[in-house]
């Protein structure tokens, strides 16, 4: 935990210098309230703006790690629609090597609100492509779908919350022995974001998942996880429109994940790619 506090203090001192530069250059300072770590916020990309998101997790006790890269694109001239993909790599077991994970192809619809409203809802549908390694435990071994319903709520000028519920279905998942069974999973996450500064956020998030993993022919066993993650992030805004957001969090396992600890690192790049015709509806 002390490592996260030190990182937060360092990020705060850095952003004070960046904030002074932004003020001198008359750059806008809109508060960052999206880009959550574990919970999915309900804000689609701004028209013409593309985001590149990287995250890296390292668990100290289990000596496992996971990396993901997501690229989000708004559909031109249809800002309510967003397309994205996620590629990943992982070492989910201390005794196994690292390998690529499954490819995720995502579509999200801005059903309600925007980043400028008090309430926003943006359901997502994902196609899971089995590019991961079943042998190394980084893939389901079969194609599937995932759905989620993120919701975001602005409590006041200092606090924002993001919450989501989701489910995953893999009709013909496999294990390392080649056993096949239907696999189901459920997940929920929530976050409270403190808008400490227009460019600095304090964060507290929690994430729960329950997955039915193949362990025998036509059979599965349930694996549950529960994580708490206090952390911080900071935004650096540039005259070109580029926004860079690094962040860090401390991961603490509780309940079924008790005893494991780790660190979460986040880095986002967001920038305009084209000029959108017309305004939002």
Describe this structure in words.
- The protein is mainly beta and 281 residues long.
- The protein has a single domain (2-272), classed as Porin, CATH 2.40.160.40.
- It has 1 helix and 15 strands.
- It has one helix spanning 2-24, and strands at residues 49-59, 65-75, 78-91, 99-100, 103-109, 119-121, 124-129, 144-154, 159-174, 180-197, 200-216, 219-234, 236-237, 243-253, 261-272.
- The chain has a 12-stranded antiparallel barrel.
- A hairpin with a 2-residue loop joins strand 2 (65-75) and strand 3 (78-91).
- It is globular.
- Mean pLDDT is 88; it is low at 10-28.
At CATH level 3, the topology is Porin
H-E order: HEEEEEEEEEEEEEEE
Can you tell me the number of structural domains?
Answer: 1
Beta-strand segment tally: 15
Distance between the termini: 44 Å
Relative helix content: under 10%
What is the 3D form?
A: globular
Q: How would a crystallographer describe the biggest sheet?
A: 12 strands, antiparallel, barrel
Q: Report the CATH C-level class.
A: Mainly Beta
Cα radius of gyration in angstroms: 19 Å
Instruction: Look at the helices and sheets and give the structural class.
Output: mainly beta
């Amino acid at each position: 935990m002390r490592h996260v506090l030190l990182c937060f203090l360092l990020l705060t001192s850095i952003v004070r210098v960046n904030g002074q530069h932004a003020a001198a250059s008359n750059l806008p300072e809109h508060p960052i309230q999206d880009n959550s770590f574990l919970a999915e916020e309900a804000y689609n990309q701004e028209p013409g703006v593309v985001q590149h998101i990287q995250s890296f997790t390292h668990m100290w006790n289990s000596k496992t790690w996971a990396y993901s890269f997501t690229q989000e694109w708004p559909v031109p001239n249809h800002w309510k629609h967003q397309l994205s993909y996620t590629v990943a790599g992982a070492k989910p077991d201390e005794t196994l090597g690292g390998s690529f994970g499954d490819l995720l192809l995502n579509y999200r619809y801005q059903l309600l609100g925007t980043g400028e409203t008090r309430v926003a809802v943006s359901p997502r549908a994902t196609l899971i492509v089995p590019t991961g390694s079943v042998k190394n435990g980084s893939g389901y071994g079969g194609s599937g779908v995932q759905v989620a319903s993120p919701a975001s709520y602005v409590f006041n000028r200092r606090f924002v919350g993001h919450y989501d519920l989701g489910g995953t279905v893999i009709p013909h998942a496999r294990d390392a022995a080649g056993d096949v069974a239907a696999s189901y999973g459920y997940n929920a996450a929530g976050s409270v974001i403190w808008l400490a500064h227009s460019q600095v956020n304090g964060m507290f998030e929690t994430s729960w998942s329950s997955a039915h993993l193949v362990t025998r022919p036509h059979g599965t066993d349930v694996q549950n996880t529960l994580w708490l993650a206090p952390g911080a992030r900071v935004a650096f805004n540039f005259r070109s429109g580029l926004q860079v957001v690094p962040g860090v969090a401390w991961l603490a396992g509780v309940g079924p994940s008790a005893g494991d600890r780790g660190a979460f690192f986040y880095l986002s790049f967001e920038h305009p790619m084209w000029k959108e015709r017309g305004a939002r509806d």
